[in-house]
Write a structure and sequence with these properties.
It contains 8 helices and 5 strands; from the N terminus they run H-H-E-H-E-H-E-H-H-H-H-E-E. By secondary structure, the protein is an alpha/beta fold. The protein has a single domain, classed as Carbonic anhydrase (Beta-carbonic Anhydrase, Chain A), CATH 3.40.1050. It has a 5-stranded mixed β-sheet with strand order 2-1-3-4-5, sandwiched between helices. The chain is globular and about 55 Å long.
Length: 209
Amino acid sequence: MHDQPDITADEALQRLVDGNERFLRGESRVAGLSREAMAEMARGQRPFATILGCSDSRVAPELIFDAGLGELFVIRVAGNVLSAEVAGSMQYAVAHLRTPLLVVLGHEGCGAIQAALETKYQNVQQRSRIQLLMESILPVLDGLNPELPPSEQLAWAIESNVRSTVCRILESPEGQARVAEGRVKCVGAVYEIETGQVRFLEAPGRTSG
């Protein structure tokens, strides 16, 4: 399907907030789908939001936002980094699936960010493919205060990595065009593994761009 979803970016963001609140209360509503619902889903997808998240097994967007099959277009990669392949997937979500909301979702205790910190400050060399991933994260660490305690360094780096990715998306030619059209909103968020809460870095209801 290529129709514009009947939902605005702010409404989509509120649905994520409400879903995370149900998850926190232990009142998740998502259950199995009927055969009829599965047949309808086979005809096409209409996700209301695109999530760029980390591959960490503890951070499953559909669960923490209490969303069912077909409701979220999820892209997951270690460190929620923005590569050409990820950018292409996001462009597909906006151009073809018409998702009005993009969320860059980081999380507490991110191993990819921790590895980047070890590479920067301890000269730890990762395996070849992992080191390539680190190269995508290291520029974000340039503004980090090395005098901060390790836990604060990690928290700062995780949030800064999310903010940097949001900025790169919004500053891309495609992002600028879609925001100018009023079609897309992009926000960052950090998932707190210990509590289950998603902390949005931009308050719901505000418009990006």
